[in-house]
UniProtKB/TrEMBL annotation:
Keyword Membrane attached: yes
Domain of life from the UniProt record: Eukaryota
Domain Ig-like: 129-178
Bilayer disposition of the protein: Single-pass type I membrane protein
GO biological process, one term: centrosome cycle
Name the record gives this protein: HECA2 protein
Keywords: Cytoplasm, Disulfide bond, Glycoprotein, Immunoglobulin domain, Membrane, Signal, Transmembrane, Transmembrane helix
PROSITE patterns the UniProt entry points to: IG_LIKE
Cell location: Cytoplasm; Endomembrane system
Gene this chain is encoded by: Hepacam2_0
């Protein structure tokens, strides 16, 4: 009996990306999941859940033998891609950032199950920067100072870099950055 039980435990293998998956807001995102098992199966069930921190997991969709049962609230957004257990999210929104949990159940002469978690981060493309000058005329005679202020409306992980004639500017007697 012990040998049979150990064989059942190791019979199902789920392969998912091990690192955080970055998607772009407004674009589709593909979460790649492969599974294989060394048992005879009469039924294969796939379940996808989504969890944000501090909230209960939400059911997205599931399938039994490739017949998909979506959550009606999300049926136009999430797609199961047979024959593997991959999930397509289209389009991706900021609110889709979090953990996606995939669970696979295989029923043969017993039921074996495995689940994995995929972390998804949503990146927002940086909008075109706007530069404002003070004084607004941009004309400074000899001794005056000019302030250049750069802003962007949207974007995740924004980094600013000032250039002059294609070369990076560094802080010094003529330039200060804040």
């Amino acid at each position: 009996f012990f040998h049979f039980y150990a064989g059942i435990c190791s019979a199902l293998k789920l392969t998912v990306p091990s690192h955080t998956i970055h998607g772009i807001e407004g674009q589709p995102l593909h979460l790649s999941v492969d599974y294989n098992f060394n048992a005879t199966a009469s039924e294969i069930q796939i379940i996808w859940l989504f969890e944000r921190s501090q909230s209960n997991p939400k059911y997205l969709l599931g399938s039994v033998n490739q017949r998909v049962v979506p959550d009606l609230e999300y049926q136009h957004k999430f797609t199961l891609i047979p024959p593997n257990a991959s999930l397509r999210i289209d389009p991706l929104h900021l609110s889709d950032e979090g953990n996606y949990i995939v669970k696979v159940n295989v029923r043969g002469n017993g039921t074996i199950a495995a689940s994995q978690k995929i972390q998804v981060a949503v990146d927002v493309p940086v909008t075109k920067p706007a530069v404002h000058t003070e004084p607004s005329s941009g004309v400074v005679e000899y001794v005056g100072n000019i302030t250049l202020k750069c802003t962007v409306d949207r974007g995740t992980r924004v980094a600013y870099q000032w250039m002059k004639n294609g070369k990076r500017l560094h802080a010094g007697p003529n330039y200060t950055f804040s």
